[in-house]
Amino acid sequence: MSIYDYDVTTLAGEPANLHDYEGKALLMVNVASRCGLTPQYETLEQLHAQYADRGFAVLGFPCNQFGGQEPGTADDIAEFCSATYGVTFPMFAKTEVNGDNRDPLYTELVQVPDAEGKTGDIQWNFEKFLISPAGEPVARFRPRTTPDAPEVVSAIEAQLPR
Hints:
Blueprint: E1 7-9, E2 15-17, E3 25-31, H1 40-51, E4 56-62, H2 74-85, H3 104-109, E5 128-131, E6 137-141, H4 150-159
Parallel strand pairs: 3-4
Antiparallel strand pairs: 1-2, 3-5, 5-6
């Protein structure tokens, strides 16, 4: 199944279609505003801007499952991301990435192994999944791996549409 086949909701509460991103390389990230890793927003935005014209996008999925680090409303999240980090990449509604109410999209994503071959639950905020232009998850980067780490950048560049 392609990630394009899953239903998502924008941060503003509107239904969204992941088919809008078909043919692009994507970095899907569960994000939070009050996390020690929150400064990754800055680098995520830089990657989004740097590669956007080459068929790449970052997609943010706020999550409040890790230490209650995303407690705000959709408006709070949008304001924080815009004012603090200048985020322009698409943001979606709060999403549960683990547990009984895990979003179906994340049910598929957690099957992707990380660099050590491990699958399963999301460890913390800012876990990153690279999606091919065909909609297939191809790589997983754990939260402490920064978005500009060489292994992330080279993986993104390898997935950019030709």
